[in-house]
## 1
Amino acid sequence: MAKIRVVVAGYGNVGRGVLAALKNNPDMVAVGVLSRNPDRVRKSFNEIPVMQIADVDTWLDALKPDVAILCGGSKDDLPIQGPALAQRINTVDSFDNHSRISEYFAAMDVAAGKSGHVSVISTGWDPGIFSMERVVANAFLPGSRAYGFYGLGESGGLSMGHSDALRTIPGVKDARQYTHAVSASIEKVRSGENPEFTPGDMHTRECFVVLEDGADQNAVAETIRTMPGYFAPYKTEIHFVTQEFLDQNCAGFPHDGLVVAAGNTGNNHSARIEYRCIWGSNPEATANVLVAHARAVSRLADEGKCGAFTILDIPPAYFSMHSKEELLKKFM
Amino acid sequence: MAKIRVVVAGYGNVGRGVLAALKNNPDMVAVGVLSRNPDRVRKSFNEIPVMQIADVDTWLDALKPDVAILCGGSKDDLPIQGPALAQRINTVDSFDNHSRISEYFAAMDVAAGKSGHVSVISTGWDPGIFSMERVVANAFLPGSRAYGFYGLGESGGLSMGHSDALRTIPGVKDARQYTHAVSASIEKVRSGENPEFTPGDMHTRECFVVLEDGADQNAVAETIRTMPGYFAPYKTEIHFVTQEFLDQNCAGFPHDGLVVAAGNTGNNHSARIEYRCIWGSNPEATANVLVAHARAVSRLADEGKCGAFTILDIPPAYFSMHSKEELLKKFM
């Protein structure tokens, strides 16, 4: 059977993760990398063609891809790039601005729908797997609420968005932010209380900050603690450290999370569902999920489907490289 | 919107759980119970009509059901009842003989397919949710194996099948069997070793047995320990107890389980996925899952689909009572 031909749009952490993940999926093959700056990418990567993302006709013609995995950012890249590319090729992306998913879905549905393509949006582990687990937990335990906790391990989970926010503060040279789940709140959910939480009840934030020479430590700390949305609602611990400390102790992108729902079945018997994942590399986890969805995109397209889809619209078998017969025999 | 009209075939533990679960799903309504012995059922249940399951034309005409939830046993009931009823109505069942699922799927696919009905087979928590979790874990972490462990809590999980097996032994008056997961083996899987296990490596079995007057305790113990498949491959602990002890300490049907897969993402970063559920009542948990699948059956039928399906063939959104818009906004 012909392999699914994939182009990877973007050569950041997720894009590199996708290229690595494709090697573990024998039914797919990476045929090219698309970038706004192909020359820069080529300096470190030459295994397959690296092409200018704006030259759509050129790379469509040269690479004959079936699916593009879009690895750009949700803030600036995907809102423009997504609808533009969905008119030309089947796509999958990890758009993760939760409050704007409905809007992005609508734009992608129009773009992919009118050109006859399939676009799976907003997948990875959250949104993505966790979204699916929230929906099925709520369906199997009606009335329960599915809660998401992040950073349950001792060192917590590295948040890219919060680390970026720290680095925008004047006087901050470099920084990392680790999210910690509040264990007592997890236990409350497990008990079946279905509690009301503020964000600060569920998570705390721990910052490792390297200051510029001569920066005012107290002023930086105050700016962090009062930053709306990012830190103001949370108990926030701040460590001022050296660049050496940061480089040695805060490398990598570990993250983890838990979806938990608890309630009762029919005659008041307790019931609890938990989905837990622990990732050594957050962007590689996202990449693995994107690649499995590229397989689903290809199958949906083969069926003649078009428009936008999320993980909620896709039968689980479509993610698997195994045949229907194998799944019935070995996985049911 | 009209409610989905459900008939419940069988009034055992699962059937009663389905009737209770339907009350928590406002888009569905139980319109009747089907039984081989309606008079016996009516002695304890009169809320809705109880009808003879063999009189298919009569109850189809009187109750106008959209879906039948089949709550019979996998050994004797479903292999006959499933294909017979799938020719007349949309069905969902929890056929749980793992080694014969392919064969049952084929029979149901023919029966439902040629009559234009939808039959979702083999759903509950295992097979069912756990099957789905095995497939997605394997798809998102290619090369990893998804392991199933049962009875992780202190008291273990009550196995109906093994309890029934104990009760077939001459000299045994009553019995319960609790399955226990071997913690050290779970830790091996979590470490990413993807180990090879024999069944006895993963679980132990604990039996509470009430003897008939004058039965030979040693002979019964020997019969248990050497019973092929059920106990011979496992470390088995046997407690001989009184009926009073059993009634007081072994009531109810608690069960729990874990699907766990561990491996690496692209550049050799560790990755682990775990799905855990803990049920106060095993048959009520199965019932809750069956009811959510009855909703999916109704949607698949509305789309004009027909034939047999498993949880692997169904988009997760089909299980939810929430609209597509609500799911995009609140669950993604």
## 2
Amino acid sequence: MQGVDPAWLPDEAFRPIGTRRTLIRGSGPLVDTVRGEVARACARFGGAVVQDDPDLVLELTGDDAGEGFTYGRRDGCTTVTATGARGLLYGLFHVVRLGETAFLEEAELEEHRPELALRMLDHWDNVAVHPVMGQVERGYAGGSLFWEDGRARGDLERVRAYGRLLAACGINAVAVNNVNVHAAEARLLTDRLEEVADIAGALRPYGIRTHLSVTFAAPVVLGGLGTADPLDAEVRAWWADATARVCSRIPDFGGFVVKADSEGQPGPFAYGRSHADGANMLAAALAPHGGTVHWRAFVYDHHQDWRDRTTDRARAAYDHFVPLDGEFADNAVLQVKHGPMDFQVREPVSPLIGAMPGTRLAVELQVTQEYTGQQRHVCWLGPMWSEVLRFGIAEGSSVGASARGGLVAVSNVGDDPFWTGHPLAQANLYTFGRLAWEPGADPYEVLDDWIRLSYGPGPAAGLRSILDGSWRTYEKYTAPLGVGFMVQPGHHYGPGVDGYEYSPWGTYHFADRDGVGVDRSVASGTGFAGQYAKPWAEVYESPETCPDELLLFFHHVSYGHMLKSGKTVIQHIYDTHFEGVVEVEAAREVWASLAQLVDPARHARVTERFEEQLRSAREWRDQVNSYFFRKSGVPDARGWVIY
Amino acid sequence: MQGVDPAWLPDEAFRPIGTRRTLIRGSGPLVDTVRGEVARACARFGGAVVQDDPDLVLELTGDDAGEGFTYGRRDGCTTVTATGARGLLYGLFHVVRLGETAFLEEAELEEHRPELALRMLDHWDNVAVHPVMGQVERGYAGGSLFWEDGRARGDLERVRAYGRLLAACGINAVAVNNVNVHAAEARLLTDRLEEVADIAGALRPYGIRTHLSVTFAAPVVLGGLGTADPLDAEVRAWWADATARVCSRIPDFGGFVVKADSEGQPGPFAYGRSHADGANMLAAALAPHGGTVHWRAFVYDHHQDWRDRTTDRARAAYDHFVPLDGEFADNAVLQVKHGPMDFQVREPVSPLIGAMPGTRLAVELQVTQEYTGQQRHVCWLGPMWSEVLRFGIAEGSSVGASARGGLVAVSNVGDDPFWTGHPLAQANLYTFGRLAWEPGADPYEVLDDWIRLSYGPGPAAGLRSILDGSWRTYEKYTAPLGVGFMVQPGHHYGPGVDGYEYSPWGTYHFADRDGVGVDRSVASGTGFAGQYAKPWAEVYESPETCPDELLLFFHHVSYGHMLKSGKTVIQHIYDTHFEGVVEVEAAREVWASLAQLVDPARHARVTERFEEQLRSAREWRDQVNSYFFRKSGVPDARGWVIY
């Protein structure tokens, strides 16, 4: 698409196919998409769509809903077969990803199929510009792809191009509006449905199903009913009717996303009903149409009293939802943030995951970098997500395996020409899609794929070195040892060590002149550690066994406490903050050295972002270090300059 | 006026005149105003405007511009005579203020005249709603009286009623738009002049001259010139023309207010010119028309590095302006904030005042309660202002006497039905006007006047007890010992002890585990104390002689430092924060006891504000105390609960 960064689908990526002869068997809209992709590549590079003597066969052998495909190469011919049209589409992008290898190396037949059926992006896009949150809540990539100043943006070509990128990394679902559903957005469900249908139509050719965030109060605010009680017959009928209308207009409609009783949004508590009651009502409305309700588990007290050290926000999701295990309908998915707090640079895995075996859980990640540099800092989150997904949360079960309801992420995309503000933040979107397909995948291999596709071989080594440790670098110069939330209130950018310390949000570090951290042990703290299954409950319970990187999340320790690394907590704080800045400086140098190997527009944008990242990293370093030096009085042992 | 609180001019206040026979001699618009006031009172209460046998004579004996009047009562007749029409108007309101006394007690002839010729309110009202600052910057009383959503509000009856209130407390000038002049506001000078003229027309009957805040860049942004250099002939001609047009449309136009080279506003520095050059250019444009330029001295580095302890924002105004003493034109007034920082609840007097004997200085106060509770807290500022105005800043000269250019305040008024949001905040506006007329007046007597006029005798004792100590109460539960700026960034409401500690604004307290405060001594600090004349330079230089209430403004001391009060700094912090809350609780009780003695609408509004004040005061108390307890580790000696 003109004027928009090609991301991981530059024309060059289609050269291997575009110079070959491809035979395509099958019919239907998605096969048409496949045929169109191949034909376009051939038109550019001189190959052809043929009926015989192919280098590549793409064959649809059935008409099921499967997403898998079989790939192989024998006797000079590469084959992709699939029993469902989506599988064929994914097979095509698999060949694109392999590049020349797909036509040079023999390969035994291998089955590919996604481990998770739902791989979804939630857009926190507002239709009407919100007076505080703007067009996109926590958006750092310009405006919305879908909405602008209260109206549909109407650029369906861009939406289609977006769907194409998503399909190429395995994503199959998009929720098109913010989970905080305000007045204008509520009406997407009813009289503004056509705007959603247009978007769904543009995403459909790439196998993306459209979802809608709805307000639990819709029967009242849209339907004029006197209640939204989920057990009220009239309310249920209203939802059934509204849902039927949506699904008749959007036959492949994915379903609803609901944030209820959370940060001020309405929910079933107002009617004395449980969250299972609420979710099941919507599930019943969706069931006849094959849709799913995604019910978010982000329920906690956001009017907490900071003086009260017994209440612990980290406990909230578990306390609210575990008692409801087994009560949710089959097409209700409980959507759980990966950590117990809110997308900090370091959190333990949420103990809720693995504690609800009778419930379909989806795990929610945040691709948009709310707390990880807001797409002004390089921070590739692949290793963090991979750690989460591989984490053995329950006996014999990883987080990835527990996510039977799928993997969901908050999108980092906007109408920015580079899609994601920071061009290197595209890597997060791509990695998310690939990990959703295969939670156990090696994130560094995924990163290499992204680099090769997006930038070619020239700058690959440099890009790898900039990105692969960037999450740990970000962690180093920001909030140490799992403590979290040392950010400026509201917008969450930049350091504010006490920014949330006396707030109602339940996000404290309790630093005093002697020590820092939150005691979440069973023995002497909030008891949160006890929400975990073994062995984690025991590991986290004691400062002696708790991993260094989560120490301050689980324990309040003295500044002189000795870490497993052999450093004291305070010296760890000083050292990591300096090291983090040094690492940013080094990454910026590497980037500068790639000037001749990278498209100038991309290079200029990233260069500009590195200036800001370095300025901000130094600010983080000096504020955090000064804060803890002033409080602890412990001099640095290494000769760093602390103000 | 219907639906609007009568403030200090309820009908009842006109009963003494309205039941009498009044003879009015003289002619002209202001005499018409006087006649209208008297006639209206008589129509209500049965008196009359008469030609003979008067109880009261109001007589204009000349046509000068004087504002004084002579008052007396002899042989059963009260007389007010004035040589200028404004004087007659002020004499009328003097009689209103005296009430029955004016008709019952004989009085020798006494001269009244304002000590300061200019008594002005600056409105920080935006024409177009600012995305961050809203319709009124630092406004806590609803929208603007003058502007709404980019247009003139058009309610000239309300503007006239406002002018009437101002005249009744002695104010004679109003600047109708924010000193931060954005795009829409800039055009008030040129193609939107009619909107200003309409407002001027509504204020004129009460002797109020209208002023306009202008942008220094006007010749560029409005005139299309390539420069705004104040020594450029074309620029000077542009200003002369623009000013002539304004003054031909508004013959009594007061002049311009300019914030230049301050917090991002354009100014003469861009052209290598001095602030005297800038001010004198505008003064030259205004001189033929009798206008004055008010040039603000609020010039400092707002991109300061918090790591740099040698730069001191408190020094900035003095450092910038004292070298220019004697260079400003006669009709240029240098407008200086009363303290060296920014309207904190406690600051020393700005050393600039008294250090520029060759310059007409105006002293700027802040009636709008930006840092003093934002009209959600009761905080009557009369005692603070009185301390400032009576302060002997230079040999034989008080601040009030140094303010030859007048007294200016940022208005606290909006389109709120109570004018000021918090009904009791009206007392600040009234007190400001009276102190501008007579800087040495006893503020408590002024307060009693306000209470008697506004509320009558019933609740007077209660109101006195609520208001008279409210500033010191507010000081107690907020920022201690002159340290300032422990507020939430941006909106400045509520506690944020470290809110500005690592910011670029130059507003720090440097609290660490051992002590707190800013060393501004000459011997070891920033040298700010040396900007004062004797004896203050010596008094402030040493912690031993520095007054307790300013100790942390001038010195960094240990938590165990013994105050003159006999308490340590830390125990003072603990105690005052608890005492402050107790005082708010007591004031709320008093207010509750006045329910039957106060108009129900006023009572309800103040009751609601007290709830918020108490909640907020407790938050201040607990956050400040927890902060310093965590940092110092010093236990409270009194048994308070500290979290």
